[in-house]
Each structure stands twice: as C-alpha cells, then as structure tokens.
Amino acid sequence: MDWGTELWDQYDIIEKHTQSGLELVEKYVKFAKERTEIEQNYAKQLRNLSKKYNQKRSSKDEPECRLSSYQAFLDILTEMNDYAGQRELIAENLMMNICIDLTKYLQDFKQERKTYLMDAKKAQQSLESTYKQLDSSKKRFEREWREAERAAQYAEKTDQDINATKADVEKAKQQAHMRAHVADECKNDYAAQLQKYNKEQNQFYFSDMPLIFNKLQDLDERRIQKLAQGYVLFSDTEKHVMPIIGKCLEGITKAGTNVNEKNDSMIVIEQNKSGFERPGDLEFEDYSQGINRASSDSSLGTPKVSVDPWKKKTNNFWLFSKRSKLSSPVLAPFSTPPAPSPNGPPSPKFGRDPLSYCLKEINKTVKPRISSFRTLRRSKFTPERIMPTVTEDFAHLPPEQRRKRLQQKLDEICKELQKEVDQSEALGKMKDVYEKNPQMGDPASLASQINQTSQNIERLRGEQSKYETWLAEAGGRGDTLRYKAHSFNNNGANDVHSPDGAYSDESTPDPSQAIYAEFDDDFEDEDLAAPIGKCTAMYNFPGASEGTIAMQEGEVLAVVEEDKGDGWTRVRRNNGDEGYIPTSYVTITLNK
C-alpha cells in the first residue's frame, strides 16, 4: 500500500503530515543538544570536583601521602576524573552522531520535500490551466451553437415570408450556414479540449500525483528510519563507554578494597617513631624531712605530700596541646630516672639536681651508682612544648626521623650530582668535537657552562660529604653517645650531643665533664651483661662508623640490648667485642 493509490486525494493531509515529521526531527535534535549540554556541564562539574579535592601538595613529604586510605582517595579522584572524561565523550558523540548528522539530513529532507511539493503544484496548475481552456472552448461552442440555431431559424422564417425577396432569403441561408460551420468548429475544438483535459486529468490523478505522493512517502519513511537510528544512537552512545565507566567504577571499588588499616598504622608508626624512651616515675621530693643518706640505709616513710608555693617551676611533658585542669606532677630533668639504689629509694635531692648529687655520692660509693650512669647514658630529655628550630642537619627531629630525612636528602644530592657529572661529561665531549671541527662551533663558548657545572659539582660534593658525615653520626650514635661528654644547664635540657641527634653549639662547658671520662674506664671494667638472645646476620655490615661492629653474612652474635626504636641493636661476639649493628640486617631470637 502506498500513498499514491490510497491517498490520491489527500494532498493537504500528506503535506501536513510530512511537515509534522520534520518538526519532530527538529525537536529531537534540540533535545539531544540539551542532553549534550547537560553531559558537558556534568563532566565539567566532576572534573572541578576532582581538581578541588586533588590539589597538588607543596611537598611530596606529606605524612599522609603514604597511607593506603589517602592513596585510595587519590585513586577515587583519578577514576572520577576518567569518569568525567567518558561523560565528555558521550556529549561529543551525541553532538557528532545525532545533532550534527540529523541536522544535515533534516536540511536535505526539507529541500527534497520542497521539490516534491513544487512538482505537485506545477502539475495542479497545469491541470487547472487545461481545464480553463476546456471551459472556454465549451462556452464558445455553446455560444456559437445558439447563434447558429438563431441564424437557421431566421433563414427558415425568411424563406417562408412571402414579402421577403430572394436575395434576403439567400442571404439568411448563407448566414445560417456560416453560423452552423462556426458552431461545428467550436464543437470540434471543445471536443479536442475535452479530450486533452481528460488525458491530463488522468495523467494527473493516475501518474503524476501518485508518483509525487510515493516520493513523499519514501522521504517520510527515510526520515522516520533516520530518526529511529538517532533514537538507537542515543542509547548506544552511552553503551559504548559503559565498559570504560565500569572499569572506572571497578577502580573505585578496588581503591576501597586496597585500604589496609594495619599497614596505615605501621606507616604512622614508621613516620612518627621518635626513638625516645617513655618517661619514668617521678622521684618523691620530701622537703619535710632532712635525711642523710650516708647515715641511714633504711627506706623512706610515706610522708604527706604538700605543695610548696615557693617551689621553682620546671617544664612539664605534655602529650596533648591542651593541658588538663588537674595539676600534673612536675617532671624531673630526665625522662628516664636513675635506677633505684640497693639501699632504698634515692634521696629527694637527686630529683632536683642529679648531677651535683651524683658527683657528691661518687666520693662515698661508686659501684652502686654505675647502673644509674648507664641509664643516664641512654636517657632521653623531656622535650619542651615549643616549636623546635629547623636546622639543616635535621637535628630538630627525633633520631629515627632524622636518619630517614638525612638519607633522603643524601639520595637527592647524589641524583643531582650524577646529573651534573653527566652534563659535565657531555660538555667535555662537545668541546672536543668543537676543537676538532671548528666549523661546528666555538669551544670558548662552552667555557662558562663548563665552569658553572664544575662549581655545581664541587658544591654538591661538599654537601654530599657533609650529609654523609651527619648520617654516619646519626646512624652510629649508640657508642658515640656513650663517650660524649654532657653539659647541663640549670634546666637540664641541652647537652653537646642531645639525645635526638642534634648538636648544640650554645651549651656552656661544665668543669665536671671530666668526671664522666674518669668513670668510662669503670664502665669498661664492669661485668659483661648477660645476653638476652642471639641473632644471625643476613647481610655483610662493615661497621665503619664509631660504636658499630662489623659482621659477616651468616655470623651468629649474642644480643646484649634490644633496639630502642632507633634501628640499632647492641650485640657481642664470643671474644667480648661489642657494638651496634642495623636491626634490619639480622634475624633476632630472644631468650624466653
């Protein structure tokens, strides 16, 4: 069934229907454009959102950068950015495959429809023109036939009139004959026009218009087919990117599953582990009783604790920034108190001035105080609640963190130094080429660059040597601290080589420093401490730094002292040699 056969008389309906179809295409193109704008805005907002929460850090050393939860969040932002890219791709494909393509076809459809309608109008005008000619010839034939009838009647009347002359009769007959001849010609012309009109009308209704209607039908069907393809593309455009979007969503899921809370906790420990020991118990300071420790070995009683309003204030060790409203005890100058004496608790005076008290007690008995000095050697000072001064050697950091930062800085310097050395070699080769082939360039033009590179190499080598020295000090500070003379100020806070690895140039020498050196021999003469376990070396260690001991892979050593958090373990050989080794170089088995 086609329009030419079934709708031969519905020209207006066909014209209206085809116009409505084209308007539907325009409406769908407008709809697709608005959808494209929505996708573009959505993608833009997603990108802005990802950019907002993925701002570049000023430093790559941010502590949270290594946390799996932080990395997972960065992965989510990356996947969201990729997801936004897919939304942009959807918008681009919608614009190219639907909006632009359908707009182009729409213009072609409009032009083709306009051509068909003009052909129909021409055929209609041609048929109307033929009909007008037919109507004109018909009216002329009617008029001439009536005139011929009147002329024939007049001739017959004249012929019967006895008063009419022969000439009048002859004239009337000739006039009637002429009119009859004209009427016959008009009749023949009318018949010819009628035949022509019927032929054209038959052509119009059975050939021309059905052909035009069929072409319009084909046009409308192609328009519908193209519109249907646009409908399908509307869905397929998004389906084509769904696998990639699915991968983005899978990446987000994977980022969530990759979060390892235990590993994050270990990273926090690794990044913030100071290596300090916990502060010990405070000494009881009894101001109500004057006890002479030399004359009495009995333990102290338990007097009532009273607050001395004239007591000198000392720095407190606060774990949190906000202090509790409850009064907290005042810490002693050392976070780790001296070991208790076999004769009872130490004198309260020791908590106020440990150095002077130790020097005074040395004259009475030395051996009972050796363990206290050993504890003193390992003691850590109570950090003050002020911001430390940032130094080039990272002395403001705890020992463990300082060693890591020094190693990181040394690696950066080595990379930069290697880069400068490579550049220097390249400039040297270029200079040789210029000297052998002067037409390629002037060797003198490279002098400034070579000089600058040499200066950079010397500067970097100096920095490398400096940081290597600092790193060696930080890595081998076990025995180094043992033989370093300490000087205490009134607050007991700073010494020549502080426990966190920082050197203090402002510390004032104390004449009593020599006494520490005198008792170093006593420390060496002590009975060797019993091993607490054994360890097996996994790698060779040269032991070049002071206080360290060399070991060979597979060698078994006795563990004398565990790792205190600074990455070093104290060991002993069978021949009595002691020293520190990296904890990560050995496998340790402690005695149960």
From TrEMBL:
Residues 1-264 form the F-BAR domain. Residues 106-203 form a coiled coil. It comes from the Eukaryota. Residues 530-591 form the SH3 domain. It is found in: Cell membrane; Cytoplasm, Cell cortex; Cytoplasm, Cytoskeleton; Lysosome. Keywords: Cell membrane, Coiled coil, Cytoplasm, Cytoskeleton, Endocytosis, Lipid-binding, Lysosome, Membrane, SH3 domain. GO terms for cellular component: cell cortex; cytoskeleton; lysosome; plasma membrane. Transmembrane segments: none annotated. CDD domains: F-BAR_CIP4-like, HR1_CIP4_FNBP1L, SH3_CIP4-like. Belongs to the FNBP1 family. This is Thyroid hormone receptor interactor 10b. It comes from Astatotilapia calliptera.
